[in-house]
C-alpha cells in the first residue's frame, strides 16, 4: 500500500531518513482517520496518516505517527 504526496511515494515497510529520528521504517499508511493522536487532531477524512518505527540495534523502538505532509517534510 502506498500513498503519494508531492512527487514522492511512501511505501509500507520501506526505510527513510527522518530529520528528528534518523532511520525509520514505515509500518502503516491510512486514509480517512479522525485523529493522529491526542495532541494533533484532524477532522479531515482525506488525511493520510503514516505510522513509523525508529530502530536501535536492529530492533523497533518507538511507534510514531505523522500526517503525510509532516512525514514528507521530515524525510526530504
Give an account of the 3D structure.
By secondary structure, the chain is mostly beta strands. The protein has one domain (2-74). The protein is built from 1 helix and 6 strands, in the order E-E-E-E-E-E-H. The strands form 2 sheets. Strands 3-4-5-6 form a 4-stranded antiparallel beta sheet. The protein has a two-stranded antiparallel ribbon with strand order 1-2. The longest helix has 7 residues, at 68-74. Residues 1-6 have low confidence and may be disordered.
Query: What's the alpha carbon Rg, rounded to whole Å?
Result: 12 Å
User: Helical element count?
Assistant: 1
Shape, principal axes of CA atoms: globular
Tell me the β content: over 45%
Strand line-up of the largest beta sheet: 3-4-5-6
In short:
By secondary structure, this protein is mostly beta strands. Helices cover 9% and strands 53% of the residues.
Secondary-structure map:
Blueprint: E1 2-5, E2 8-11, E3 15-18, E4 22-31, E5 48-56, E6 59-67, H1 68-74
Antiparallel strand pairs: 1-2, 3-4, 4-5, 5-6
Quick tags:
single chain; 76 residues
Amino acid at each position: 500500500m502506498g500513498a503519494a504526496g508531492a512527487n514522492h511515494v511512501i511505501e509500507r515497510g520501506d526505510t527513510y531518513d527522518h530529520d528528528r529520528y534518523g532511520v525509520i521504517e514505515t509500518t502503516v499508511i491510512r486514509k480517512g482517520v479522525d485523529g493522529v493522536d491526542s495532541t494533533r487532531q484532524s477532522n479531515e477524512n482525506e488525511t493520510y496518516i503514516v505510522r513509523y518505527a525508529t530502530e536501535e540495534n536492529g530492533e523497533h523502538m518507538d511507534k510514531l505517527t505523522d500526517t503525510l505532509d509532516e512525514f514528507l517534510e521530515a524525510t526530504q
